[in-house]
Amino acid sequence: MRLDRVRSDGYAFQIEMTYKCWRKGMRIREIPIVFTDRRAGESKMSRRIVWEAVGMVWRLRLTDLFGKLE
After folding, report:
1. Which of 60, 53, 54, 51 is nearest to 20 (CA)?
2. E strand or H helix at 55, and its extent?
3. What dihedral angle (degrees, nearest 10) is formed by the CA atoms of 23, 34, 7, 1?
4. pTM, rounded to two decimals
5. What is the distance between the terminal CA atoms of the chain, rounded to a whole angstrom?
6. CA 60 to CA 12: how far, in whole Å?
7. ∠59-64-70 over CA atoms, to 5°?
8. How far apart are CA 67 and CA 70, in angstroms?
9. 67 near 61, Cβ under 8 Å?
10. What are phi and psi of 69, to 5 degrees?
11. CA distance 56 to 68
């Protein structure tokens, strides 16, 4: 895996790495994480982060369809 070619960070990073590993035939497993309820502060999940992640899914799929996925 060429880490110097990873283009994203945050939640989109997880999506990009999972997709690229899947395309290379690697085995993917989910390891559950239990979060305790937030008692103070606000969620870090903004609309920008959500749209970045959604955009990453489409970008990866289209790049793969056109044969340019690295």
Report:
1. 60
2. helix 47-65
3. -40
4. 0.71
5. 9
6. 11
7. 95
8. 9
9. no
10. -75, 130
11. 15
Both structure tokens of 61: 């799929």
Q: CA-CA distance, 15 to 64, in Å (whole number)?
A: 14
* Per-residue pLDDT, 66: 84
Predicted pLDDT at 29: 93
Per-residue pLDDT of the chain (70 residues; tens, 9 = 90+): 778 888 787 888 889 999 989 999 999 999 988 877 777 777 777 888 889 889 988 888 888 888 877 6
Q: Which residue in the block uniquely carries the two structure tokens 């489409």?
A: 58
4 and 42 Cβ atoms separated by less than 8 Å: no
Written as six digits, the tokens of 56 are 């990453």
